[in-house]
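Hi team,

Below is the intake form for SCP domain-containing protein from Parelaphostrongylus tenuis. Please confirm the fields before the structure is written into the shared record.

FORM ID: S-0412
PROTEIN: SCP domain-containing protein
ORGANISM: Parelaphostrongylus tenuis
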Amino acid sequence: MHNNFRSLVATGRARNGEYPNENAPPASRMDLMEYDCHAEQLALSHAGSCDRREIPPFARPGYSENIHILDTTATDLLGAIQNAIASFIFELRGNGIPSNMILTPQVFQRTRRTVTRVAK
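The structure came back. Fields below:
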């Protein structure tokens, strides 16, 4: 599921919410994912802390982090994965990405769907 969604985004086949007649632009700089035992240990340790915050970059050198908080325990692992992917898909379908990919000052000043943080 996760790889299928990443593939849609990477190849420009994911629907673009705010721009209904176009797909989101292809991901020209999407990081290649590979399995890494140390990354898994960091992720499991952080998930076990339940602090609901990102680990500071200096504490995870060389790794990026994507956090999704599931506010229920009434699910299994597959349900949790589906919930996380659905929330990421909703972001793209709900907000969209301009095809020219320019983040303008006006985006920060809008009153609907406000930008609170920007990351790579």
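SUMMARY LINE: The chain has one domain: 2-109.

Thanks, M.
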